[in-house]
Design a protein that fits this description.
The chain is an alpha/beta fold. The chain is built from 15 helices and 13 strands.
Length: 368
Amino acid sequence: MSRAAVLVVCGTRPEVIKLAPVIAALAASPALAPRLCVTGQHREMLDQTLAVFGLVPDWDLAVMQPAQDLAAVTARIVAGLAPVLAAERPAAMLVQGDTSSTLAAALAAFYAGVPVGHVEAGLRTGRLDDPFPEEMHRRLIAQLAAWHYAPSAAAAAALRREGVAADRIAVTGNTVVDALAAIAARDPAPPPGLADLAGARLVLVTGHRRESFGRGLAALCDALLAVADRFPDVRIVYPVHLSPAVHGPVRARLGDHPRITLSPPLDYAAFIALLRRAYLVITDSGGVQEEAPSLAVPVLVTRAATERREALDAGIARLVGTDRDAIVGAAAALLSDPAAHAAMRATANPFGDGQAAGRIVAHLTTVL
């Protein structure tokens, strides 16, 4: 009996991380076979993450161009996927999350008559332009998808409120927990130069979202300088995104501080090695909001809104926005008060048990 082909499409580092466990589960299935197409929406970090998980694409659209805008990259992905779908004729397509690659792939599959499964479906802030453009992408993908793999009961409820039939929704947990467990089991080493913190408390930082460009990113940098100056036992490590809108301003403001380390983007294994050692995380990343609680690390979220309310509701993450004083105040409270820090350490993971990929593949097996 031949195995039904499932085309898995991803274009960015987070998509590879969250789809790698699903690809592994498909590869182990007697009924289904994965075919991997990368769009190349993000090139360097995409290739870096593929290597960490040992993934070799069957198709590479290589759409990345300098200074690409959302309209152009979306159009190139839709057009680039048409011949891939014609050649593969898959039984289904899987997409993850909320990027331009995800939306464009779902649209291309709809045009080709291929049913789509949406991994990490149902996340909502309730604000169409925040995060931009991801909230809009998620809502449009919900109209295109045949099956919705919700990471939590709250995400499933959001889909039902929007009119998605309950029998098209499966609550699976988030596949990032699967990926994190697989990488953590390797006991990865921190990157050279960051292994010895000499007893310092590590504050791990990420900040790259387009809503924060300009004033918000400047406020984050000013807050980090204040925290570093106030707490001599703190060492701040900030892997800086390659975007010129991030890289230039961050290095200009933080590059000379002796206890702030600005590194190039880290591969996923190295990042998880640092995250396991972190005392506190300050981030605007959706994935890090899930990964840090999975390792019992408190999170300060530098966004105005988040679609990952589970961590806020559990008290293990706090929304601080991009106001300098709010960031400094929240970080100082956790660095000054051991009880406050202990109260934000996750005792139970709201994002799942590490079995999401298996549940997704089991569901696909019943519907294909």
